[in-house]
Amino acid sequence: MAFRLNRPAVTETPFFSEPPVWLLVAENAPERTCIPLEHTADGPVIRCFLSQFDAMIEAELIARRSRMRYYAVPASEIDRALFRAPRAAGFIAYLHVGWFARSGRILLRLDGLPAGCHQPLRWSGSSAGYFEVDRCMLAMVERLHERAGLFAWRETLREVDDWGGARWAQAQEQALRSLSGLSQDGEISAANQLALFDPEAGQWHLVPIDDAADCDDRS
Asked: Over 80: is that where the pLDDT of 33 sits?
């Protein structure tokens, strides 16, 4: 989807400010930007990330296949109208919570990219000035990381954002190198695990997919 990079007006409350959420954008033309969308039962929806590191892993994977360079931008800096639900009132986004895997191997989508698991975030309340990651979603993400032994995952996200370029690049290369070794073609519907990457340790963790309640978007 291409659009003008309109930032929220100074009088508007930005969406996704706490916790911060990231999305991918790519320059398409002067003053225009592309955002990759997730094709869901709700229609085309913006895909977001709680982890800037995960967003940049996805960006690099897309770049390697399409040669289009994406970068991570805080969702709070994007025109709020882009989050309007395409087929209903209110707002919607799909939040990345991991990558689908089976028996220790990350699965590929038909386009050759690792299959991400995305949970729908919806807001249909009366206030049009509010859209954040809700407590239920945060509890589910917390549960996934605890099962992976990543109890300090929020602190890790903040620390990784402050890393210098060399350390960030090294961790990203570790993720991509090990990801290529794990991947295999397979039916996404057969996934029984979710894969999470720990940039501090430079390794993937696999947890049962049942820990992600309602994680049924396997397109």
From this structure: no
Query: Whole-angstrom Cα distance, residue 91 to residue 99?
Result: 24
Task: Return the residue matching tokens 């911060």.
Answer: 20
CA 169 to chain centre: 19
Residue 91 has pLDDT above 90, yes or no: yes
Query: pLDDT confidence of 219, banded at 50, 70, 90?
Result: very low
Q: What is the pTM of this model?
A: 0.86
Mean pLDDT of the chain: 83
Q: How far apart are CA 115 and CA 218, in angstroms?
A: 8
pLDDT at 217: 47
Q: Which residues lie closer than 8 Å to 166 by C-beta, 6 or more apart?
A: none
The DSSP annotation for the chain comes to -EEE-PPPPTTSPPSSBTTB-EEEEEEEETTEEE--EEEETTEEEEEEES-HHHHHHHHHHHHHHH----EEEEGGGS-GGGGB-SSSSSEEEEEEEEEEEETTEEBB-TTSSB-EEEEEEEE-SS-TT-----HHHHHHHHHHHHHTT-TTHHHHHHHHHT--HHHHHHHHHHHHHHHHHH-B---GGG--EEEEEETTTTEEEEEEGGGSTT-----
pLDDT, residue 174, reads 87
